Q: What sequence folds into this?
């Protein structure tokens, strides 16, 4: 995005990170050199050189950081190993600490906060709004939170306490308090004059919230409409009354869908009695969507956001261990199914070679079904009325694919082991396991949804458990009955 | 989101869908009744009754649809089986066809377009902007596209051809042409007067693009700043010159990241010589992000967006078949690895029962690593400089988890089969396979990225292939060497 050569945004965050890395490397080079000289000529001269070049280098780094958007500084901090990260963090102006803490990932935020003392954290919070502080609070020590709350003025403290009272995943946890509202019985001229009293309107303000004398929401007045309208017209005439508004208790996910569906930029948040108390912006919604998506992506393989690229081996292994243990348990049960047929396998070792295919393709096929169902659940497209239709469809596909690929594999097995009966058992087992996989792919997400769990996350463990165990059981069972 | 009882947006799209389903069910009930009566009393009276109730019902449905946002109508169409979907589609006013086609998913769009003749499609396109038509074109028959292009006026045709010339995934494919620009040498007063000549500014207009006499981009003027400023100030004074702008050839994903990072609502798209030619809005960016995410989610299990909940069994099986075939091939190779050790398995059938555990946990562990790497790649956080560190870290975690869970399983196997050597082989195989899995989880996504493939999509097939084959090979190989 070239605008001019000295435009900081024309460089990508990656360019900034590379430049910072280069400066840090230069720094280390100087330090190395000085340390090597130190052992030869004594330390005094070396210390002087070091401190001079050091200072020059650091000043250059600091100047670069000062010119960057907080999101870009966050990107740099996330891209650096811990030692370098803390050097850079030390160079960030303390009045920017707060906004940068808001931008970095959880894992990196923890490392930065660990490097700050209570006074620094309280000072950082002083530059933030109530809703922003509320976002940081879960990562802060209890006593620091108390200090921060006490450092606020009365209004801000009330807002902070209100923002803190809503659980993650609610609109209340995403909303901010930078509301600009206008009475409906004034003219546009008055509205424009009122706006001119602001130094600048809050970010992402695309409309004014139109209220009555008691702050009850009446609708919204889009700025773009205000701008094109005759100043003598009354606000009420231009007010859009068919607007999406949310309660602080609303589900943030539902709100995100509404933002997407209706192309919203900001929307009012109203109390139970219809008063405007806050607003929700596309910025907060987008952050929420991305974070939820990421943590879901990680949770699917048993990871939490606390781990980043540079976490220690020990910390990472602890983070990943429980998931492996869970999978170990399910794999163990599947293994016992095989164990029950050890007699058959001793007689016909080909069974051991073929059984993973039956189990594996069942898992693949079941995952296709469950991915579709999880997606349909997310879009509220599964209902009691169409469940029967889905059931018939998925079982049909399982049977069709099972018959097709079962036949292919049956013929291959026949050719490979010169055993037609083995081929037939293989084909039949594939067919049956793909039908089982379809049913599992359909019912496991539905059951998880019913029991209030996120079907996107745990479905695949259960599914693999079913398709593995049943795949082994069906194949080895059929083989024991028909072949031995 | 309650505002008033008769506010259509206070109901969720699900409520609308339920209401439509109820009306459709009532309709079917009447038809059934009439048909049953018809066989008793002859057809004339029945036909009269049917047509009357029919009409009344349909009128009610149509009225309801007319009041809904296009996105809500799209939601309803997506939630209905084909026959009902076409009934509802027939009731949508033809001037709304275009905007609704834009909102529905690919699979549903295909079914709706199949129900329209060329003239209807051309008429629907007449109500759309050039960039919107360009979004539909990939789904339309060649000759209809020609008709649509010919039906445009000269300006729109040029825009349409420009929009069509950019590939999917570029900014050019997302941009629209509703640019509002202003010269920098005028006063705010003049700017405001200019704006008042519009009936309404385009959706998602949060700033004016400031240009010179030749349409070269100079910066942007946020509407919220224009509103609070003294009318006598020159536009140039208020212009924000540090702005993100994009070229139509820019990567849409990079643009999406910039929107997210800097909280943008709209941004100018400029030609190579710096002229403003179009704009990019958060609405288009959000659609892009969601669609890409969804299609990635589906592609991971070998599905394409062409399949929806109500696709036919045959169509769905064809959609899912190739993925199963690919997995069949890799499973077959893994099976041949086992086949090579059939002699060992005949002698010790316990190997067959234990080998799926080694392979399976390897797959789980490798998927954890590759998920982290894929995510880091998406955020540009993997570089040559930190690759070595990542390598050491991932191998360390693999070894640590392998030693831990390998020991656990080794002891379990020992206890189960009263064979200490078997337990030791099991433990060693787990350790080795988890290290292999770490390496595979690290290098497979990096290699895919290097070869220009999306690492999020294909990584898991390759990974499972490696962890299965190597898991079987390591375990059975060690067992053959040390146990037999």
A:
């Amino acid at each position: 995005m070239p605008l001019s050569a000295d435009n900081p945004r024309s460089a990508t965050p990656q360019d900034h990170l590379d430049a910072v890395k280069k400066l840090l490397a230069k720094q280390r080079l100087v330090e190395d050199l000085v340390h090597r000289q130190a052992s030869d000529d004594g330390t005094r001269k070396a210390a002087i050189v070091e401190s001079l070049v050091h200072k020059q280098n650091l000043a250059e780094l600091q100047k670069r950081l000062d010119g960057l958007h907080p999101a870009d500084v966050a990107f740099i901090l996330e891209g650096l190993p811990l030692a370098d990260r803390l050097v850079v963090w030390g160079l960030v102006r303390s009045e920017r600490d707060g906004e940068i803490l808001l931008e970095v990932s959880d894992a990196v935020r923890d490392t930065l906060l660990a490097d700050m003392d209570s006074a620094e954290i309280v000072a950082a919070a002083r530059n933030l709004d109530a809703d922003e502080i509320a976002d940081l609070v879960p990562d802060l020590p209890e006593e620091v939170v108390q200090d921060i709350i006490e450092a606020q003025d009365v209004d801000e403290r009330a807002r902070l306490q209100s923002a803190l009272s809503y659980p993650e995943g609610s609109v209340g946890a995403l909303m901010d308090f930078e509301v600009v509202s206008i009475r409906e019985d004034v003219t546009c001229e008055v509205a424009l004059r009122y706006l001119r009293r602001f130094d600048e309107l809050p970010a992402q303000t695309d409309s004014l919230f139109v209220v009555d004398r008691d702050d009850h929401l009446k609708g919204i007045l889009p700025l773009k409409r205000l701008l094109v309208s005759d100043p003598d017209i009354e606000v009420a005439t231009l007010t859009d009354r068919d607007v999406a508004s949310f309660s602080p208790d609303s589900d943030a996910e539902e709100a995100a869908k509404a933002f997407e569906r209706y192309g919203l930029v900001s929307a009012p948040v109203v109390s139970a009695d219809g008063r405007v108390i806050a607003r929700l912006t596309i910025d907060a919604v987008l952050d929420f969507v991305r974070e939820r998506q990421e943590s879901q992506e990680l949770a699917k393989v048993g990871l939490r956001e606390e781990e980043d690229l540079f976490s220690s081996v020990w910390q990472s292994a602890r983070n990943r261990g429980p998931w492996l243990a869970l999978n170990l348990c399910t794999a163990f049960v599947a293994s016992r199914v095989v164990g029950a047929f050890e007699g058959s396998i001793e007689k016909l070792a080909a069974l051991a070679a073929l059984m993973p295919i039956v189990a594996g393709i069942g898992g693949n096929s079941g995952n296709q079904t469950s991915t579709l169902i999880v997606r349909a659940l997310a879009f509220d497209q599964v209902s009691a009325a169409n469940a029967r239709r889905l059931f018939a469809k998925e079982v049909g596909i399982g049977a069709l694919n099972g018959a097709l690929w079962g036949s292919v594999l049956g013929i291959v097995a026949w050719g490979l082991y010169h055993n037609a009966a083995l081929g037939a058992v293989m084909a039949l087992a594939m067919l049956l396991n793909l039908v089982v996989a379809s049913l599992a792919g359909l019912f496991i997400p539905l059951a998880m949804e019913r029991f209030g769990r996120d079907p996107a996350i745990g479905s695949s463990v259960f599914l693999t458990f079913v398709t593995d165990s049943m795949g082994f059981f069906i194949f080895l069972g059929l083989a024991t009955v028909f072949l031995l």
